[in-house]
């Protein structure tokens, strides 16, 4: 038969690597490779059924196996769909992704937080199974996803000029008390100051010298809000002013001397894992991306597509790249560990040469 050559349009819009021969198909079946599901099907002569490569059924003898490029081809050959792997439906991974995507839409549309049991029942799963599946596919728990969406909605309301009280209730908080308990952690400042674009906030900054050039460290009372790399202090100061246009910027070399020393040490050896007090600011999605980046071990890389898939949003590759570009905390949030689909370095806000050096240092090169 001809080698199965199906496209994975539902996930990436790009052709998937084909199985070149029956030997490759057999290897996928023996390994129960879920990544091969939808790329071909196999049938078993003794049972009369056809299956996905990942089917958990008992392995059949090679002489009883045949491979088919589509379920239609398997059915034309006289086989019926396996009831165990439900070969008549989309692959299990796609069905689960669609289920969790639907749950995310329910969370986003709900005026109030939906109980876990209710979300699970809507998906036809037990609360435990639903919670585990949601976290595996979305990268966060249902509660964390709902909180992030509510945060994003609040930020849009405030940025659009809504009054603080109106924005609180429009974002889904059923009391102002519950909102103010977590407002600082959610917005990085009070709601009224956020609405004013951070006007009046004091940010102290200082520069130091590292093996990758100048380093600027900026901090609020909550922690370090920016780590910038560049060739000259004036360049970095201008970048800081663009990132925080409404804040009062104050040079403070003495106050930040210890943090500069620790940041320079992290630049020189990004494997060091120095613990820095960070004041992380961004949209709900950006924070999810940055948290995923912080989970990448030193010396390893992920593609933009892999990060998007980990977050349960495989189509959001450009949004992930945008979050990396918006990162103001160089190295502390390691966007240098994200590469292009072909393994190339792709973009880096502080220059590809610095990105290459950081990765080489982490790999011990």
Give your account of this protein's structure.
With 365 residues, this protein is α/β, with parallel strands linked by helices. The chain has five domains: 1-89, 3-Layer(aba) Sandwich (DNA Methylphosphotriester Repair Domain), CATH 3.40.10; 92-139; 146-195, no CATH class; 202-268, Methylated DNA-protein cysteine methyltransferase domain (Double Stranded RNA Binding Domain, 2-Layer Sandwich); 284-362, Winged helix-like DNA-binding domain superfamily/Winged helix DNA-binding domain (Arc Repressor Mutant, subunit A, Orthogonal Bundle). It has 16 helices and ten strands. It has helices at 22-31, 71-76, 92-109, 116-123, 127-138, 142-159, 164-170, 176-181, 183-187, 191-195, 233-243, 257-268, 284-294, 304-310, 317-326, 352-362, and strands at 41-44, 49-51, 65-68, 80-81, 202-210, 213-220, 223-230, 248-251, 302-303, 338-339. The strands form three sheets. Strands 3-1-2-4 form a four-stranded mixed β-sheet. Strands 7-6-5-8 form a four-stranded mixed β-sheet. A two-stranded parallel ribbon has the order 9-10. A hairpin with a 2-residue loop joins strand 6 and strand 7. Helix 6 runs antiparallel to helix 7. It is elongated. Mean pLDDT is 79; it is low at 1-17 and 161-198.
């Amino acid at each position: 038969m001809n080698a199965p050559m199906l496209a994975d349009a539902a996930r990436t819009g790009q052709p998937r690597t084909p199985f070149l021969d029956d030997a490759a198909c057999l290897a996928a079946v023996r390994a129960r490779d879920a990544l091969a599901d939808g790329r071909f099907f196999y049938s078993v002569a003794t049972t009369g059924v056809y299956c996905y490569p990942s089917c958990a059924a008992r392995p059949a003898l090679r002489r009883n196996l045949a491979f088919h490029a589509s379920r239609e081809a398997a059915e034309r050959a006289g086989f019926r769909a396996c009831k165990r792997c439900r070969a008549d439906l989309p692959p299990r991974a796609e069905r689960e992704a669609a289920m969790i995507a639907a749950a995310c839409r329910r969370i986003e549309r709900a005026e109030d937080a939906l109980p876990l049991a209710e979300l699970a029942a809507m998906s036809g799963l037990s609360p435990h199974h639903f919670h585990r599946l949601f976290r595996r596919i979305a990268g966060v728990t249902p509660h964390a996803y709902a909180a992030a969406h509510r945060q994003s909605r609040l930020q849009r309301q405030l940025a659009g000029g809504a009054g603080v009280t109106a924005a609180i209730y429009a974002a889904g908080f059923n009391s102002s008390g519950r909102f103010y308990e977590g407002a600082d952690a959610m917005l990085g400042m009070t709601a009224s100051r956020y609405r004013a674009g951070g006007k009046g906030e004091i940010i102290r900054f200082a520069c130091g010298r590292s093996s990758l050039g100048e380093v600027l460290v900026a901090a609020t009372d909550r922690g370090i809000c920016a780590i910038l790399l560049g060739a000259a202090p004036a360049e970095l100061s201008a970048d800081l002013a663009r990132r925080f246009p409404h804040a009062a910027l104050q040079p403070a070399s003495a106050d930040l001397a210890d943090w500069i020393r620790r940041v320079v040490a992290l630049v020189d050896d990004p494997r060091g894992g120095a613990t820095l007090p960070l004041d992380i600011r961004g949209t709900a999605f950006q924070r999810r991306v940055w948290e995923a980046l912080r989970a990448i071990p030193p010396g390893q890389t992920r593609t933009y597509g892999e990060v998007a898939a980990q977050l349960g949003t495989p189509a959001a590759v450009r949004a992930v790249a945008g979050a990396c570009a918006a990162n103001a905390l160089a190295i502390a949030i390691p966007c240098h560990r994200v590469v292009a689909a072909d393994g190339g370095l792709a973009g880096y806000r502080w220059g590809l040469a610095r990105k290459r050096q950081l990765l080489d240092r982490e790999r011990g090169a």
